[in-house]
Amino acid sequence: MTLEAQAGPSAPDPRMLQSAWRGFQQLRSGSGLVLAANVIALLVLIAALASLASMVPRHGPAEPADLEDLINQVGGILVAVLAGLALAFIVMLAGFLRMLSAAGSFASLGSRFQRGATGSKLIIGGIGVDILGLLLLAGGAWAGSLGLAVAGAGLVLLGSLAVLVGWIMFSLFISSLSELSIGGFRAPDGFKTAGILLLIGIVLNMASAVSPTAGTLGVALDLVAFILIYVYSGQALEELRKAARGLPVPLDSWG
Q1: Alpha carbon 90 to chain centroid distance?
Q2: What is the value of pTM for the model shown?
Q3: Fewer CB near the terminus (10 Å): N or C of the chain?
């Protein structure tokens, strides 16, 4: 059943407040995980660069024994970097999944917010198709099967298109959250800015194939958008607490 969120002075529906509370909690925790993953990756790279810089010989060429030791140290650093980046990837994936699940919580609040759930399904499904396509592509290359490789490439293209469309829909959903109003509660207008930044980031990330600078700028805009989502989700939760005062609905049960 869909509950239409409307503005007005009337008492808010507790079920609508529950859905909004759950959705903003998921957005805040998900965006927080994405930001934490980026911090982890940055710290890992900084530590690796610092370690490599400290191993540069300062007094003439290295002796063979020193060179062997240097190679072993570099190998250890690379293993540590890969482990750190793998951890960052897992944390980021968990954050994205958490954010995508938030779309389902908001879907019951009206047709304006249902595109987020549709976009989330496209993203998750597209990633699954991409993985299958990559496996077929690798299998075709290993077995020397052109047909299998072409089929895999086609699935990768199809999955990537689904992810692109899904991410556009999810960005529009984030932007539309600025229109969410339940009784005396109104979501912060900053969500519109976050959604617009995500959309611009999509365009710039697509342009990274011809301009690395555009890709870097796109990633930067994405990070700013996640920061805004984290901040404004926190503000929305505080406003929801105020809107729920006097209602027979315990906030502790709104997980």
Answers
A1: 11
A2: 0.81
A3: N
